[in-house]
What we know:
By secondary structure, the chain is α/β, with parallel strands linked by helices. About 40% of the residues lie in helices and about 15% in strands. It has 14 helices and 15 strands. The protein has helices spanning about 5-10, 25-35, 45-50, 65-70, 105-120, 135-145, 185-195, 210-240, 245-250, 275-285, 290-300, 305-315, 345-355, 400-410; strands at about 15-20, 35-40, 75-80, 90, 125-130, 155-160, 180-185, 205, 325-330, 360-365, 370, 375-380, 390-395, 410-415, 425-430. Strands 3-2-1-4-5-6-7-8 form an eight-stranded mixed beta sheet, sandwiched between helices. The protein binds nicotinamide-adenine-dinucleotide (NAD). Nicotinamide-adenine-dinucleotide binds near residues 20, 41, 111 and 131.
Amino acid sequence: MAPLKDKIRDRTARVGIIGLGYVGLPLAVEFAKNGFDVTGFDVDTSKVDAINAGRSYILDVKTEDVAATVKAGKFRATTDMASLKDMDAIDICVPTPLRKTKDPDLSYVVQAVDAVKAHIKPGQLVILESTTYPGTTDEVVRPALEEKGLRAGVDFYLAFSPERVDPGNESFVTKSIPKVVGGFNRASTELAAALYGSIIDTVVPVSSTQVAEMVKLLENTFRAVNIGLVNEIALMSHRMNLDVWEVIDAASTKPFGFMPFYPGPGLGGHCIPIDPFYLSWKARQNGFECRFIELAGHVNSSMPEYVVERVGEALNTKKKSVNGSKIHVFGVAYKKDVSDMRESPALDVLELLNRRGASLSYTDPYVPTLQHLDLNLCSIAEEKVDGVDCAIICTNHKVFDYDRMAKRFPLVVDTRNALKGMAGDHIFRL
Ligand SMILES: NC(=O)c1ccc[n+]([C@@H]2O[C@H](COP(=O)([O-])OP(=O)(O)OC[C@H]3O[C@@H](n4cnc5c(N)ncnc54)[C@H](O)[C@@H]3O)[C@@H](O)[C@H]2O)c1
């Protein structure tokens, strides 16, 4: 049998992707589009059925691409983990959430690794892509895979490669986002780099799985801390009667040494609110306290409260209270142009307003219904929204007509500067 290196070069390597979500599906399609034989493994039968019917369920992945690769026989999906034995390379892209205690929940990774262990074959390459703390690949994945007697780096190859996909970003996609790869040993790094190098423009090898794991956490902690800083600057600017957005725009003209971050209603998504806590948990195990992460988490998680405070101030100018007012939220997904609701700060804003007695509704073309705690709402088409006391722009989807919004509503609280350049006593920015 040809060695894996040759199979990768000839694109005859069979690639298995475990977890067909926001990360796994684009990756699987990219491999399939480039001629690899791809099998997607997921425990969710609705996703498996959708793929085998040639349908995408992720906005960034075109249904045409899924349909074409499935029709060409290059991509199929299954819930049957036994087919892992037929794979040459296996990418694990399952969720890594936090427990209620904010400790890492590796249960999905452990489950996926158990499935790989049950079917592992000599010569296979196993890569973990799920975001996790430094040491996971070597301390959790490797010992489990070695239980059946095969040795990492010798009998099978093992690497970590963080996923950097940015849902909704049209400029940078799987192919154009450089891929960091760290193997258990040199041979593992080289094979993983060769595999990704056949579908991704730039591969960045690093010296170990731990470095690759830490790279991802540095990137996302960098964002979380800078967003925390700019959110604090926004609160400060409001006290000083300064427009923080104007300040950021002017600071951004500096051609070096400054990178703009923007305030908002709070952190959302599966990465920025979660990943830094993977790092602080691991640091604590080593007797190190991550003060920046804790502080940024504190500021960022206070933002929904601040939005509600601004809504109260806006209503006050009309001698109204939150209690009894009709408040309409534009955009509930965690960021613009996506349908992902995970950790969305709009949920906190809605929940806080609900507790204060507001009558609530929302518009989000990407989120037709919303169930959260006591809330059970359906998206209302923008033209049907009527009798609103105050509108809140929580998520600045491109499809919204902001000019019309500014004209139609008696009060607008804009958490994203979506009404940039528009003036009026009825517009309240963060
Ligand atoms: N979403 C992003 O933008 C993003 C970006 C970079 C990194 N990440 C990281 O990538 C990982 C995956 O995130 P995601 O957003 O794709 O998650 P997701 O929830 O969209 O997808 C995960 C998929 O894994 C499946 N799954 C769960 N357990 C499984 C098992 N044991 N076997 C097979 N399938 C299983 C789920 O059914 C789901 O389809 C996480 O670690 C996340 O932090 C996500």
